[in-house]
Amino acid sequence: MFNRTSTTILKQTFLGILLFSLSSLSLGAPLQLNGLTTYEKLRKEYFIAGLYLEQTEKDAEKILAANQSQRMEMRVTDDRLSPRTFAKIWNESIVINNSPEDLETYNKDMVTFVTMLQGKLVTGDQVVINYIPGKSTIASVNGAKIAEFSAGFYPLLLRTWIGPRPSTSDFKRDLLSAGKVDSQLASRYETIVPLDSRKKIVAVWASGGEESDTDNSAQIAAAKAQAEAEAAAAK
């Protein structure tokens, strides 16, 4: 039987583990969870978004201008997020939150990013975008590196979350909470982890393979065509 002191110690230990995992490490740089929010469209939730910074901050412009390690993280809650839907979500947001000049400069990075999935995402999958100041932007899925981009491409992605036209005002506000996240959402976020089978599938993508869905090639081709068309229209 646990006495009151033991119970208190267990609670404190659990809280410490939770806070440590939320203030996780990114390529050697300690990052803190700045905000959490859900991404929804037409009343359907697709993922929980987490923004990690070296120091918590409420000002979007300061975050965008900071030459420090950062991380954007998506933890998928939808049971099936197709490559085409992924591309549509990101492509539309990138176009409306960035200047025509930036879209032209990073056109190849943009097309590569929105079409980097080689198969669907499912509940528990994690998409992570790490910014290494002055070096690169690295995208990974379930721990496997999928693509690498220039460091200058990262702000274009970040503006989709905290730029002038986020998916909703609440989405942006919650990411700019400077670490004051909803405890229930944080607990839920921590439970969203990929299955081992999903890690193996994504490892195949990372090695240049493709998931065995018959519609993947068509979806990826359609997403790429859409991305190229919208980028060209924005010039």
Architecture overview:
- This protein has 235 residues and is α+β, with helices and mostly antiparallel strands.
- The protein has one domain: 3-Layer(bba) Sandwich (Chalcone isomerase).
- 46% of the residues lie in helices and 21% in strands.
- The protein has ten helices and eight strands.
- It has a six-stranded antiparallel beta sheet with strand order 3-4-5-6-7-8, with helices on both faces. A two-stranded antiparallel ribbon has the order 1-2.
- Strand 7 and strand 8 form a beta hairpin.
- The model is unreliable at 5-27 and 214-220 (pLDDT under 50).
Strand and helix layout:
Blueprint: H1 4-22, E1 25-26, E2 29-30, E3 32-41, E4 44-53, H2 60-65, E5 70-76, H3 83-97, H4 100-105, H5 107-114, E6 126-132, E7 136-141, E8 144-149, H6 154-162, H7 169-175, H8 183-191, H9 196-206, H10 216-233
Helix pairs in contact: 3-5, 3-6, 3-10, 5-10
**Termini, distance in Å?**
69 Å
CATH topology: Chalcone isomerase
Order of H and E elements: HEEEEHEHHHEEEHHHHH
Low-confidence sequence ranges: 5-27, 214-220
Overall body shape = globular
- Count structural domains: 1
Strand content: 15-25%
Overall mean confidence score, pLDDT: 85
CATH first level: Alpha Beta
Query: Which structural category do the helix and sheet elements fall into?
Result: alpha+beta
For the biggest β-sheet, the strand order reads: 3-4-5-6-7-8
Number of strands: 8
Rg, Cα atoms, Å: 18 Å
CATH architecture level-2 label: 3-Layer(bba) Sandwich
What's the main sheet like? 6 strands, antiparallel
| Percentage of residues assigned to helices | 40-55%
Helix tally? 10
